[in-house]
Amino acid sequence: AAGVAAMAEGARSGATFAYHVDTPVSVGRHQSVMVPIVQTTVSAAKVAHYDPRVLEGNPLAAVRLVNDTGLHLAGGTVTVYDANGFAGNALLADLVPGDSRVLAYAVDLEVAAEVEGGSEPQRVVAARLVRGLLETETRQRVTQTVRLTPRTDEERLVLVDVPRVEGYEVVAPEPAPLLTPDALRFGVVVNAGAGASAPVGVPVQLRCAPTDDTEACELEVVLER
């Protein structure tokens, strides 16, 4: 919209990605030049991202990008604008075609968050005799409850990260969460209106309508081994 046109096209080269400038550029001694590489529309959705390991009391305002440009987007600083103007700065790691990334750029003060964890004692769920030996199967559960309290009437998708625990699998809720390198990512829609929908590729495990009896929206994650 600012009248800047892309001057390069991308091509994969082995394990790297190269940009080839369409129009020759001359750079004189002691001079530098900025060449627009990509000028296109990228699929994006406004979300909130809650990770208690980063900030315990509030989620972060974020935007989820899907690289549907067909080009490799090099990492660097991203400046985010919304309808009101400048919103914040984020840091983008290299984004290959078809991949997605959540970029946090500010603290979301309109949603309060708290997390509470617990565990249940081991219990025997099966016993059998095998060639004179008694085999028992035991299971142990851990739970983590995330409470999200909106301070706004605006519908919001909150991506909740729960740390992955080695050897445990998700029992509830459904559908299965997204897997990140170190967390399980659940989708919670607060102030959900009729026909509320999440971005493609983001499963939603919980929707809380404004008419619910309780003010807080509670996501209970149950892990078992």
Describe the structure.
With 225 residues, the protein is mainly beta. The protein has no helices and 17 strands. The strands form 5 sheets. Strands 3, 4, 7, 12, 14, 15 and 16 form a 7-stranded mixed beta sheet that branches. A hairpin with a 2-residue loop joins strand 5 and strand 6 (85-92). The protein starts with 7 loop residues before the first strand and ends with a strand. The model has no long low-confidence stretch (mean pLDDT 84).
How are the elements arranged and paired?
Blueprint: E1 8-13, E2 16-21, E3 43-50, E4 60-66, E5 76-82, E6 85-92, E7 100-107, E8 111-119, E9 123-130, E10 133-139, E11 141-150, E12 156-163, E13 169-172, E14 178-179, E15 183-190, E16 206-208, E17 217-224
Parallel strand pairs: 3-12, 15-16
Antiparallel strand pairs: 1-2, 3-4, 4-7, 5-6, 8-11, 9-10, 11-17, 12-15, 13-17, 14-15
In short:
By secondary structure, the protein is mostly beta strands. It has no helices and 17 strands.
